[in-house]
C-alpha cells in the first residue's frame, strides 16, 4: 500500500535539502578579493567603533593627550582585530591569522603613507584586488578607461578584481566595444567626447532618430507610415495601409470585409447553422460565437435536453440507432 500522501509531503523539504546539488553554494563562495574587502570593511568599522568608545566627550588637555596616544596604539589595533571575524567563520580567521603581521605593519608604520587600507592591503600587498576601473592579473585599465569604463553604459568584465578580460557588457539600449553605440529601437539623445546616452524610440518605431512616432526611420511590425508618422493597424487587420478598420490589407479570422471595412462576422445569422445541437442557442462574439443550452436545459452530447424530458430521453436512447462507436 502506498504511504499517505500527507506524510510524503511533510518529508519533501528535507528531501529537497538532501538532494540539492552543492553547486549554488560553491558559486556564492566569496572570491579572495571579496574576502579581503570584507576584512578591510570590518577593520574600518573597527576603527570607527574604537574611536567612539574611547572618547569621553570632553576636550581637556589630558583627554586629548590620552586619546592621541591611544589613537595609534597597539591596544587599539588588538581591539580592532578582535572584532574582525566571527569565531565560527573559519575562512576569515584563517585569513586573519595569515595576514596579521601585514595589518600590524600598516597600523604601526605605513598608515600615514598609505591611508587607504583597501588599496595598500588588497591591491598592493596581497594582490587579490585591483582598483575600480581596472582588471586582471596586472590591473590593466578597463575598455574605455578606468575613470568611466564602458562609457558608463556597461559593466567591465573583472572590474576591481584580478580576473576577467576588461571587455564591456553593455546595459540595455547600448552596444559596441565601448557601449557608446545605440541598439536598434534606441536613438542617441546626447553624445560628446566622454558621454553617450541612448533613449528608447516610440513604440511605433523599429528604428528612429528621436522620441516621437514622427521620428521613426522604420515602423515597427503592425504599424504603418501615414503622413510622416507611424500609426497602428486596427485590431481587425492583418497588415494595413493606414489607421482604422477601413485600411486593412486582410481581415483577422472571424472578420470579413463589409462596405470596405473589416467587420465582425455574425456566425449566428449565417445560412449554415453554427450551433447544430437540438434546442441550442447561438451567441455572436467579436471574431467568434458560442453555443449554449437555454436556461434549465441540460447538456447532452448531441442535444440540449429539457429537464422534464431528461429521463425519458435516457430511457429512449438504447432504442435509438446505434452510436458510431458501435459500428
Ligand atoms: C558631456 O556631457 C556630459 C553630460 O551632459 C557632461 O557632464 C560633460 O561635461 C560633457 N563633456 C564634454 C567634454 O562636453
From TrEMBL:
Disulfide bonds: 170-179
UniProt subcellular location: Membrane
Region (Disordered): 304-327
Keywords: Disulfide bond, EGF-like domain, Glycoprotein, Isomerase, Membrane, Redox-active center, Repeat, Signal
Pfam families, per database record: EGF_CA
Cellular-component GO terms for this entry: membrane
UniProt keyword Membrane, yes or no: yes
Underlying gene: CRELD2
Protein name, UniProt field: protein disulfide-isomerase
Organism expressing this protein natively: Cebus imitator (Panamanian white-faced capuchin)
Main enzyme class: isomerase
Annotated EGF-like domain residues: 138-180, 264-305
EC number: 5.3.4.1
Catalyzed chemical reaction(s): Catalyzes the rearrangement of -S-S- bonds in proteins
CDD domains: FU
Keyword Membrane carried by entry: yes
GO molecular function list: calcium ion binding; protein disulfide isomerase activity
Record's signal peptide: 1-26
Family label: Belongs to the CRELD family.
